[in-house]
Amino acid sequence: MQVALIRYTPQPEETVAAAARLCYSKVGAMEILEKMDPGQADRLLSQLLSSGHLSPFEHVSFTFAIEGLSRAASHQLVRHRMASYSQQSQRYVSMKKLEWVTPSTIQRKPETAATFQALVEEVHRFYCRMLELGVPAEDARYILPNAACTNLVMTMNARELIHVCSVRLCLHAQWEIRELFTRVKSEVEVVAPRIGAELLIKCDRLGYCDEKESCGLYPTRESTPQPAAAR
Description:
By secondary structure, the protein is of the alpha+beta class. The chain has 3 domains: about 1-90 and about 150-200, Gyrase A, domain 2 (2-Layer Sandwich), CATH 3.30.1360; about 100-145, Single alpha-helices involved in coiled-coils or other helix-helix interfaces; about 205-230, no CATH class. It has 11 helices and 4 strands, in the order βαααβαβαααβαααα. It has helices spanning about 10-20, 30-35, 40-50, 70-75, 105, 110-130, 135-140, 160-170, 175-190, 195, 200-205; strands at about 1-10, 60-70, 85, 150-155. A 4-stranded antiparallel beta sheet has the order 1-2-4-3. The longest helix has 23 residues, at about 110-130. The radius of gyration is 22 Å and the shape is globular.
């Protein structure tokens, strides 16, 4: 899998801070930006995050080129609807050369891995044979496995990234989409370290796991002592 940040809002953290400050300012956003230094932006972002005032984070976005993701993972990814996706089409792009993802749980079992590979290769041979027989690619693709790799472009604003990482970096998430957002986080940290630092699993903020069963990093809420006022 490859993940590259290919476009992003210039000065993303200052933009968020300026948008927030504008709500309480007599001057415009341009003047606010001209007078703002990185330290001020960082402090304001901390205030926004601690108060849960996240709408200013919607003013900055990040666009990623993603390659080598399985169709199984991309089907999970597009469930996050506050984002934009452009995905390689199996209808218009011939899959005569097929790449696929093999989960590590399969790779660790040599006999199982060999069978897995043989079946994927057999399916692909039949796919190619159908194309030779005149079956349209849009119909031949029905036999391709979820393991088949795909490429896509994804754009998300910072608020949605914070949300998606809170659930997809969790150990309960499937391993491949967890790896995807681990790489996304690393890319964001380079250009917007303060925002990147907020791409956390939700239990890091809560201090407990709000799932029915904990992965072990944090206890569930039911097993965490609560202040008397919260009971």
